[in-house]
Amino acid sequence: MTYSVEQVAEMLGVARGVAYEQVRNGEIPAIRVGRRWLIPRNRFHAWLDGETRATVRGVA
What we know:
Layout: E1 2-4, H1 5-12, H2 16-24, E2 31-33, E3 36-40, H3 41-48, H4 53-56
Antiparallel strand pairs: 1-3, 2-3
Pfam families: HTH_17 (PF12728)
InterPro entries: DNA-bd_dom_put_sf, HTH_17, SinI_DNA-bd
Domain Helix-turn-helix: 3-50
């Protein structure tokens, strides 16, 4: 139900370091579990589709 940063980097066609930077600064939606970053698939695909956080939660 999640992607790794490496998987997201490959899907986006960007370097792993770029993906990590975007995850750390909040551009790519992610959660931190211990030392790992995980990207929930549904939030990632909503982000790709340009949906806002409120839209994803069904508020808008």
